[in-house]
Write a structure and sequence with these properties.
8 helices, mainly alpha, 0% strand
Amino acid sequence: MDSRFRGNDGMDSRFRGNDGNMITRRQFIKAGIVGGAALTAAGLFYSRGLKEAPGSAVPPGLTSAGRTIIAAIVPAVLAGPLPASGEARSRAIAQTVDGVAVAVAGLSAAAQKELAELFVLLDIAPARALLGLWPGWEAAPAAEVAAFLQGWRESRLELLRSAYAALHDLVLGAWYGNPDNWPAIGYPGPAEILR
């Protein structure tokens, strides 16, 4: 055994608890059972999140949970260009969510699967808490969602930065892909092809 891990008694320190005592077989088995139960629960939530909604209830590309998550993210990402309040704001958010659903439906099967896994993860409350956002998406204030996304953007973990980039780019692509938003940025639309 490598001498770096040996304690004064010659035992491997990697198998010691926080108090310096050896982890007992009973503690090891309990931890295995708790871990197995957690993985089983996560698998059940995962499979529940990937089930399809009935027919026309949710357009292709996003589950209802994914739509709720995107609807909470839109005001954080589009804080400047989004209408301030009222019916125009609600309509703009709904159009952007629909645009994201269309974009997701057009992605490869592998990319759709990865996004579905991300939305399932973001929908599970304990996972959200570990990732930095506790309240449900419907109740989360835009400022808290923005701080959550900023934490992912600046994370040391490439996986979180990639997830941030995917969510950010999907929302911006859906917003600026909508012809209703082009006049605000001075975009005349695609050039017409002369025949």
